[in-house]
Structure to design on (139 residues):
């Protein structure tokens, strides 16, 4: 799990991976790691570093925070450029259908070349991984 998650980071050598919870993998700068570890041992940290992935069963699912991070490796995931209507549908957390030439698996949804978050492209449809608590309810 950790090797794959590290490959998703642009400057992986500058970061150390650790588990803020049993299911989550986060990346913290090497220079800050000892301090972060000390703080986390003393108090319950709400957020630490960049949440990179979540383990679901045997699968490693990329976290939304990684998609928005400048540390996301440019070649870690295929990208799917969305139209304005598709981008709004994504932000409403609706299911999308991607063109057949987009690779299956986790894909970074982009609008005007800026990342919006992840989709899991199944071919016939793409599951929307945008955080449900952030979705647009009305426009």
């Amino acid at each position: 799990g950790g090797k794959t998650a590290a490959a998703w980071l642009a400057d992986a050598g500058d970061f150390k991976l650790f588990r803020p919870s049993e299911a989550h993998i986060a990346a913290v700068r090497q220079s800050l790691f000892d301090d972060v570890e000390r703080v986390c041992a003393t108090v319950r940290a709400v957020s630490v570093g960049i949440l990179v992935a979540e383990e679901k069963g045997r699968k490693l699912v990329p976290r939304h925070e990684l998609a928005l991070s400048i540390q996301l490796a440019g070649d870690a995931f295929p990208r799917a450029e969305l139209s304005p209507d598709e981008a709004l549908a994504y932000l409403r957390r609706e299911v999308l259908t991607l063109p057949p030439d987009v690779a299956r698996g986790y894909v970074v949804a982009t609008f005007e070349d800026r990342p919006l978050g992840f989709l899991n492209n199944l071919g016939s449809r793409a599951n929307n991984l945008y955080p449900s608590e952030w979705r647009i309810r009305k426009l």
The domain at 1-74 is CATH 3.10.450.720 (Nuclear Transport Factor 2; Chain: A,). The beta strands are 15-18, 24-29, 50-56, 59-62, 79-81, 105-111, 114-121, 126-128. Residues 100 and 123 are 7 Å apart (CA to CA). The chain has a mean pLDDT of 93.
